[in-house]
Specification:
about 650 residues; alpha+beta; 9-stranded mixed beta sheet; 4-stranded antiparallel beta sheet
Length: about 650
Amino acid sequence: MMNETPNIVMKIFAKNYLAVSLLLIFFVCQNLIAQEFVKPPENLIVENPLKIPIDLKTEIEKAIYRKKNTFSGWSKDGSLIGITIRNRPFFMKNIGEPAIESKFVFPLSRNASLQPKFEENFIYLKDDAGNDIEQLYRYNLKTDSISKITDSSKFEKIGSFRWAEDGQSVYFSSEKKKEGVTEIYVKSLDEETSKLLISVQGDLNYIIKVNSQSLIIKNYSSGKQTYSLLDLKTLKLTTLVSEEKLNSPSFSNSGAGIWFMSNKEGEFYDLYFYDFATKTIQKINDSKLNIVDYSLSPNEKFLALKIEESGTNEIRLFELNKMRIFKELPKPELPPGIIGSFDWKDNEELGFDYNSAKSPTLIKSYNIKTSKIQDWTKSDVDPNLTDKLNDIKLIKWKSFDTREITGYLLEPKKINNQKFPVIINIHGGPWEMERPNFNGFFSYLASNLSVAIVSPNIRGSAGFGDEFEKLDNREKRKNAVKDLEALIAWIKKQPDLDSNKIIVNGVSYGGFMALALGLKEQKRIKAVIAEVPLISIESFLNNFSETTQKTLAQEYGELKNPKDVKNNQDLSILYGDKANRWNIPILMTAGANDTRTPSSDVEKLIEILKARNVPYIYLKSKNAGHNIEDYNSYIYLKLTEYLFLKKYLK
C-alpha cells in the first residue's frame, strides 16, 4: 500500500496538470484569435462591424499609402518645396539629394503656406474635431513650435488667408454667417491684435491674391460671383474689370495689370490681360484651348498653360511678346495623366506634379531650353498592385436625351471568358470631376477582387463646359440620375462586365446620388456604400445663412419655393415611403461634427432600415466633420469597405 501512494499522487498530478495545461492552451488560443482581428479605433462608433484580419490591414495600408509627393513651389534659394502624402512639407536643394522634411504634419496640405522672404514660418487653417470652425495657426520651422494666430471666441470662421508680400503680416477673412458679412483683417506676426480693414456683404468672400498695394477678393452673393480690388491705402473696394465670367485673377509681376481667365466667348476658358494704365483688356491666346490654369515666368516672357481634355491634362508652353503669344515652344511629353500645381523656378525651368492611373503623384520639372524632364521624386508602387490591371480607359454612353456622357473604366486583365463585377464610383460636388488618376485603394480592389471600377462624369460635372455643368440644376437633378441608369444599361451590353453584380459607391453629394440610384435600381444593384452622404438637401441648405442659400439656389433651388423643395424631396430617401422600399445592403458613414451633412439625417435612415431588418453597417466618427481624416479611422473604414464589397459581389 505504501508503494502505491506515490503512483496515486502522480496520477492525480498528471490529471490536474493536463487539465490546467488544456485550460491555459484554451485561453492562449482565445487571446491569439482575438488578436487576429482589427478592433475599431476608440473614436469610431460601429454598428454591425465585420471581422477584419490583421493581415488585410497590412496589405491595404501598403496599397493606399504610397509616397505621393505634391509640388508646392520654390524657395528663395532655389530649393523645391513639396508636401508628402502625410501632409508633411519638405525641401530638396538638388535632384537626387535627400529631402529635408519638416517635423510637423499639417491637417490639410492645401492650407499650408510658407512665409515669403524669411521662410521661417508656415501658416495653415485647422478646425477642432471637424467642426468646420477653422482658425489660423502658425508653425515655426526653426523652433518646431505651434501657435494659434486667431481664436474662435473672436472670429466665427476663417474663410481664407494670404501672406503679405513683406512676409511680416497676414491678411485673412472672417465670416459672420448670421449677418451675411465677411470681415477682412490684417495681423502682424509680432502683434496680438488684428486690424479690421473692411466689412463686405455676402458671407462667402475669399482673399485670392495680394500685392503691396491691393487685395483681390472673390465674392459670392445671391448666386453671383464677382471679383473686387481692395486698395490697401484708401480701403476703397472696386469691382475688378466688369467681367461677369472672370476667373482665376492674379497680379502681373510688374504690377502693370491683372491676368485672368474668362469663358465669355464660349464654353471654355481663354486667358486675358487687363492693363491698369490703359484700362483695356487683351486676349492672350488665339486658338481655342480648354485652359484650366496658367503660370507666368518671373520676367513674364514665357507662359505655361494647363489644358484639359476629358479629365486628362497637358502643359502647353508659349513665348510672349507685348502680352500676346508670339510662338509655341516644345512641351513636356508625358503619358495621359493629371497635372496638379505648377510654377516657374526662374525663366527657364517649370516645376509641376503629375500622376496617372498606375503611378501616384510625382514631382517633375521641365527646362524650356534643353526640353528635358527631370524627376525629383520616384514612384514606390509595388508592381503586383498594378501589373494585373489594364490601362484605365475613357468610356462613353448615350443618356436618355441622346447626350453623350463619359467616365473612366479601371479593370483587371481578362482571363478566359471572365466577367467582372462592377463598382460605380460617383464623385461629390456635384461640380467635381472624375479623372484617370492613381487610386491605391481602387487598384487593390480591382487586383484582389477581380472587379471593374467605373467612375462617371454625369451632367453637372466640371470640365465639360458651362452648359454641361448647369444641366443638373434644380428640377434637372433627376436627369443626372438618369445618366447613371443609362450607364447601367451600357454595362449590361459589355461582354466582360457582369450587370448582375453592381455596387454603387459615393461620398458626400456622390452619396446622395448613390442612394437615389439605389432607389431606382433595387433589382440591379447588389448594395450601396454612402460615405458622409447628403441625405436631405433641405437639411444641407438649412445649415447656411440666407445669403449663402441664395448663392446655392442656382444649383439646389430655394427653401421657400415649394416646387424646388418637392424636386429635392422626390430624390431624397428620407421623404415619402422611399426608405420603406429600400431592401439592399448598405454601408454608411458620418462625422459627429459634420455641419454640412449632419449625422442625424444618416441616423434617421439607419433607424428605419434597422426596424425593417435591412442589412447595414454604420460607422460614426466622434471627432470628425465632413471628412474622416484620422489615420486609424480611415484605414478601418477602407478595411470595412473591402470586406463589404467582397461579401456582396459574390
